[in-house]
């Protein structure tokens, strides 16, 4: 989803000399004010190079219309890598969940038997080496043998002991490996594998969302009032690219003196009149609960000293008659008349 920054667009203007919120001879209440509209600054969700800017200033766009497009080559490659990592994580999890295959169990049993056989041979060699050492020690004691023969026999005995120990270690390791195969994956291993799958799923989902965000679309219908970028520019995430002004739902802020405010309830009908005499039906959608001085851009000092209440008059402006900052007058029929 594209980032948007929304603000109220107004303009500086000079209102007519007539005081705000006067009652007319016909009993209708008249108030002056100005037009406002919502301005939306549409920003890029992801950074990259703009390959297309689809709108010009002054163009009317509908909600959801394409405004600009960011190059998605790098993001597409990143998604492919993430999908491959997810497939590998899925495969590893399935292997752990399935447990050892019969062939793996047979191989594990064979390794145990081979290690045990190696240990038996090593023990037989150790028994023979010990017997030789005892014989050469007896010969040396009887002055019938040499010291070198005795020492060589002792070396062979020590080597045989080392081979027995090594064979015992291999037997222990083979038995533990076979036990793990028979028991299956530990819970911690399964949890870690599931976490890897979840992590790769989240990465793929994030990249897919980023790929969607390379198409920058308008969140509202309106007029393109500012185009801030051109094709070929590189924009960071959050950079505004287009400003859309929603003129269809413009409104008038008018200022009414306190005695007339109780006569204009929420929902009251109004007529908004431009300086050119164009008349448009409107509805009061907001009455300020707080009094304020008449805005400074009212022409006379006498009018600016008056306390007034701001009323918001919503208007169907699909014909585009009203523009932000335009001075207008509003007429109200007092409630009960």
Neighbour order of strands in the largest sheet: 3-10-14-12-11-15
Number of distinct beta strands: 15
In CATH, the architecture of the largest domain is Beta Barrel
Radius of gyration: 44 Å
Count of discrete domains = 2
Compile the SSE list and pairings:
Layout: E1 3-9, E2 22-23, E3 29-43, E4 48-53, E5 60-61, E6 66-70, H1 73-98, H2 102-141, H3 147-183, H4 187-212, E7 215-217, E8 222-227, E9 234-235, E10 240-257, E11 269-274, E12 279-287, E13 292-293, H5 301-304, E14 307-315, E15 327-332
Antiparallel strand pairs: 1-3, 2-3, 3-10, 3-15, 4-6, 4-9, 5-8, 6-7, 8-10, 10-14, 11-12, 11-15, 12-14, 13-14
Helix pairs in contact: 1-4, 2-3
Structure commentary:
There is one protein chain. By secondary structure, the chain is α+β, with helices and mostly antiparallel strands. The protein has two domains: 3-71 and 219-332, Elongation Factor Tu (Ef-tu), domain 3 (Beta Barrel), CATH 2.40.30; 78-204. Helices cover 39% and strands 29% of the residues. The strands form two sheets. Strands 3-10-14-12-11-15 form a six-stranded antiparallel β-barrel. A four-stranded antiparallel beta sheet has the order 7-6-4-9, with no helix packed on it. The protein is rod-shaped. 23% of the residues are buried.
Can I get a quick summary?
The two termini are 49 Å apart. This protein is 39% helix and 29% strand.
Give descriptors for this structure:
single chain, 39% helix, Elongation Factor Tu (Ef-tu), domain 3, alpha+beta, 4-stranded antiparallel beta sheet, 29% strand, 337 residues, 6-stranded antiparallel barrel, 5 helices
